[in-house]
Automatic annotation (TrEMBL), chains A, B:
Key word Magnesium present: no
PANTHER family, per the entry: AMINOTRANSFERASE, AROMATIC AMINO ACID AMINOTRANSFERASE, HYPOTHETICAL (EUROFUNG)
Pfam families documented for this protein: Aminotran_1_2
SUPFAM superfamilies: PLP-dependent transferases
Protein name: Pyridoxal phosphate-dependent transferase
Coiled-coil regions, chain positions: none
Organism: Leucosporidium creatinivorum
Length: 522, 522
């Protein structure tokens, strides 16, 4: 395993000065004066009466063993009555033991994070993502929600604009909307955010938005986009990174689904997925924006939520040292550090599995979600006539278009997702006779989609997420489909395939078809 | 156990409308639109394709047993080779088990917190603190640092003033200083913050601070104050609460040391501490501000950091429902929820111990810290001549004054702490011949105390915390002892007795005495 280059590395460039991106809050943060005391910790024979911390001998826990599975375990069928060899016991020894004992984990810990876990994250980032500059740092956080909130507090000022994907995660929006920040959504296609539209938006900024501050931050979920499921290929990333350099933009790469990248879906392909070696798995991944980042303008957000468990509430930033230092100051006064239990268990699991084992686990896990994606689309194919978009005359259609069987009425289309947990269905409303009855509404598209959502939830008893939730907030004058300049006559639902069983998918699609026929058939 | 009154309770008053205290950020927060979907969850036979969450069957953990100790275990001597009866195994069963299984804990959880833990906190708060209004709520957070940071984001606007104790916790300050908020410190005595000075400060506000916005928030650590160690008795709390009502002030009661309340220290008293029954232990506690709060203007911060372990990163707010709702909106977009491991382990431990057991544990733990306090003061008594302040002629002295043995030179005084982890030493500098050599400095007190700190750290190799760290930030024009209007000719150190062994305390005091003699003797 390669140790990442340090500050002194002459091969890779160092991060450029990006301090002008810090907002006034993050500039004003000071280190705690108590940190000043740390430099005395090395004095030989020192007796410290400084730390106001509970004595770790009083934590009421003995040697504890966490029962994990080895990385070779099949995530789709863990043994229900495991024998000794089926399990991987992770020992967290009691206070007074050598090494990373439980009492250390349960004490106040460094806000930089559990040293073993930080070291793991450094080495893993170097092995998998290979940043293109030398002095990047790792800083642990409480998962990507916490991380994004910290980035908002690091960079955005009230009234700023923010570049987002055309459709983006509502919970991420909830962090910046209350600041009075508005989104500038950039159009997407099957490869994610469109570089041509980003370029046009930035080039024409002063003429289309006179007097509005230029955006300095792009928020993006480039693998298994939430909600669209798209994964951005390398060439598109390079185009976007080049624009970020040209227009001095920071890229926040929120990448929880990075290890859930699937092969293309083929209609009717019943080939089982084949586990890959760690090396082949690595090669199957699109490069992170980090891998293009020669200047340190990418803040990458990694998390264990989709790969080990969201309840850990542990993730990490990979960013330039200026940003991680300011984020550390913020961490010291809010989350302080992730849970000691979470950190100790993760550190033990990952160092025991080793990187090759973790990659093996990820490869198996990715296959599980690939099969889920396949089964949901296969189920749709059994109720609808799915045709390649190119074979139809529908404008802007990508991927597959679903027609009612035995008719020429297109109902919806979708791009089979190449990552993540979601199918993003685009509905063609103009062919629905019922849609016309909403034409007098202020926002006919949204009114009809709300109606359709209600029909699906209460009549078919299947719950999808209305697509309107993913339209970025652009301010109070842009709350309708037309006002936002979005395509008219269409609407969206997000369909998650991560939780339903195969049988539930089949049954759900059958129920879905009944409502759709009612709404679309004359 | 009494179930707390609900909104419909006619016996206790409901919280009054305090919505004018919310800042613009917290007012602007919106619930996530995804929450809207929750109301459909009760539809019979519903198939949900809404949640974008990993499948819990893939979390790589089997039935796991956490090895805790029973509440009867002596925290000063846990068995090193325990037999079965010495341990309390807490089972966290794997995915698919009935009840609170591990897979539920490791999934995304409600931001309100683990239901069992929330229920425990409600019942425990009612049993111990007995709020004086009816519709209070519990909201979990990631510990008091996180909690205080969330209160700052809930209530304070840039440029606001904040009421604090005369000496307060630097890490709490680090949350509000970058906002441009300045402190208005209120004088303290051996009972903590002085109501008479609070009253005077508020009554004379417009004349002493013309044009400055009135403070609306008081931050206070009323038990085992950090740094002074003082604990505020009930009558003082009532006076302060009445002022809060009169001047419409919110009280943030940061109370990590609430279960570490000690009996008075008596010089030379070698009586061993005696464990109390749960009922006697409860009676020994001063009432929380909650117990006086008929209007819902107290936000109480409770944590497990000092009683179970800081590494859990779990605490909880007790507050009026308006504030907990706004804090929940904030929680959803940052910490999201405490670690599932931490919550599940705490929930299991506390419900297994039961409240009576937890009180037993707390009583034992309190005794350990009482013995530590006693030993540190006993050690000081063996090197210095400790006299009751009243028997000396020193102005403003409280508690005990330490004279160099065989001399009439008073060096420092302290009030034996009645809670927490700290001794707060007040040094009389004017008797030190060396102090005079600093008289030309901008801030002679701070310059001498920094010198003394360095001497102690590098010559005596004992580390204390300089008292200046605890002076609240009042702005750039008040950075010296004189400019802040603090008492001249004195200085402070905070001494923690939570970590050192008895032998280290004795050795530390011997080393301390050598430096003090050098600095104070002619």
């Amino acid at each position: 395993m390669t140790v990442p280059p340090t500050n002194g590395n002459a091969v890779l460039p160092q991060a450029i000065d990006l301090s002008h991106h810090l907002n006034s809050l993050s500039r004003a943060r000071q280190p705690s004066p108590l940190k000043f005391l740390f430099k005395y910790a090395a004095i030989p024979n020192l007796l410290s009466f400084a730390g106001g911390v509970p004595h770790p001998s009083y934590f009421p826990f003995h040697d504890t063993t966490i029962s994990a599975y080895p990385f070779t375990a099949d995530p789709s069928s863990f043994p229900s009555n495991p024998t000794e060899g089926d399990l991987l016991p992770l020992l967290l020894p009691k206070y007074g033991s050598k090494g990373n004992d439980l009492a250390t984990a349960l004490q106040y810990g460094a806000s930089t994070g559990h040293p073993t876990l930080v070291k793991w994250a450094r080495e893993f980032t170097q092995e998998i993502f290979k940043p293109a500059y030398g002095d990047w740092e790792i800083l642990l956080n409480d998962g990507n929600t916490d991380a994004w909130s910290k980035i908002v507090r690091l960079l955005l000022e009230p009234g700023d604009t923010l570049l987002t994907e055309e459709y983006t995660f509502p919970s991420a929006q909830a962090a910046w909307i209350p600041l009075g920040v508005t989104a500038v959504p950039i159009k997407m296609d099957e490869h994610g955010l469109r570089a041509d539209h980003l370029s046009k938006t930035l080039a024409e900024w002063e003429t289309t938005r006179p007097g509005v501050r230029r955006p300095k931050l792009l928020y993006i979920i480039p693998v298994g986009s939430n909600p669209t499921g798209s994964t951005m290929p390398a060439h598109r990333r390079q185009e976007i990174y080049d624009l970020a350099v040209e227009y001095d933009i920071i890229i926040a790469e929120d990448d929880p689904y990075t290890f859930l990248q699937f092969p293309q879906y083929t209609v009717g392909d019943k080939t089982a997925v084949v586990p890959q070696s760690g090396e082949d798995f690595k090669k199957s991944l699109v490069p992170s924006f980090l891998n293009l980042d020669t200047q340190g303008r990418v803040i990458r957000l990694d998390t264990f939520s989709k790969t080990i468990g969201p309840g850990f509430r542990v993730g990490y930033f990979v960013a330039n040292p200026l940003f991680t230092e300011r984020l550390l100051r913020s961490t010291e006064v809010d989350s302080q550090a992730p849970s000691g239990w979470s950190q100790a268990i993760l550190a033990s699991l990952l160092t025991t599995w080793k990187n090759s084992g973790y990659l093996h686990w990820l490869s198996n896990l990715r296959d599980q979600y690939t099969l889920r994606r396949n089964h949901l689309i296969d189920s749709l194919a059994s109720s609808f006539d799915l045709r390649p978009a190119g074979s139809t005359a529908i404008p802007n259609a990508e991927g597959l278009v679903a027609f009612l069987e035995g008719s020429e009425i297109p109902v919806f289309s979708f791009v089979p997702p190449t990552g993540g947990m979601f199918l993003w269905l685009k509905f063609y409303l103009t062919e629905s006779p019922n849609f016309k009855s909403f034409s007098a509404e202020e926002d006919p598209e949204q009114a009809f989609m709300t109606h359709l959502f209600e029909e699906l939830a209460t009549k078919a008893t299947i719950l999808l997420v209305p697509g309107a939730y993913y339209s970025p907030w652009q301010g109070k004058d842009k709350t309708t489909t037309a006002a936002r300049g979005e395509e008219l006559g269409v609407g969206y639902f997000r369909v998650a395939y991560s939780m339903a069983t195969n049988e539930e998918m089949e049954e759900g699609v059958r129920r879905f078809e009944i409502v759709i026929r009612k709404e679309w058939e004359l």
